[in-house]
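Wed. Picked up where I left off yesterday with Pseudouridine synthase. The coffee machine is broken again, so keeping this brief.
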Amino acid sequence: MEFTFQIHQRITVKVFLQNNDFSKKSISAIKRNGALLVNGQPVTVRHLLVHGDTLCIQLPREQPSSNLVPFKKPLTVLYEDEYLLIVSKPTHQNCAPSRDHKHNSLVEQVLSYFQQYSFELTPHIITRLDRNTSGIVIIAKHGYIHHLMSQTSVDKRYICICHGKVKQQGIIEAPIARHPDSIIQRQVHESGKYAQTMFHRLKSKSQYSLCEVQLMTGRTHQIRVHFQFIGHPLVGDDLYGGKQDIYNHQLLGCKKVSFIHPITKQKIEVIDEYDTIETKFNML
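Structure written out below (tokens, as returned):
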């Protein structure tokens, strides 16, 4: 992966890189295994650029962790370009390997996808989802793109089904902390970190509500904890009081994402048309 810039001022390569959001880690990696070319000639970061120069930055190739085992299974690709891959993740799949689920993760599935098309790329997951939450996951094709996306505001919209009839719309503000009796479970507690969730009800029936949710903060299990806190736990979420006979996982999915692309500067909006949450609501 490489980037080309036309230079319009006197500036060192190092300062130019810093001004264009190349992190110290990225600059070090380029110095070790990448390349810096000015008008086709290799230079160091101390080189002084002048008006009219062409700077080509060749990012180093990355090696995926040896702990990842490529998982060959078709991906549901929603968007792809030279820098990003956006997919729809099913329930019952980890985004990355864990102690209890060491393989068959989404990142290993993406690694197999890259290898299938002879792309020498290493996947970097930007937006993670819980194992049993479905929907959109954004993946960077290089650590540098991951760094840029970490500085990019991503508007994520979720859809969920909760028990009972919630009000038409609302804002939940309640701090979230780790539960003292669990390494996984979270709870609303005054010692926790500030968390805010916005929602509006799309549909309702006697026992259930279908809601669209927007996270204003990004705490672990935030939607699940907040809906339990207001007395409307997510259907199927037995960790947070929403146990249901038909479904053994929370009915929650990331339905839509939008952001300004860090490279092209264009607005990207992706909707997961494969989402089944609304269909499940109609079947309840």
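Quick read: The first strand starts at residue 2 and ends at 6.
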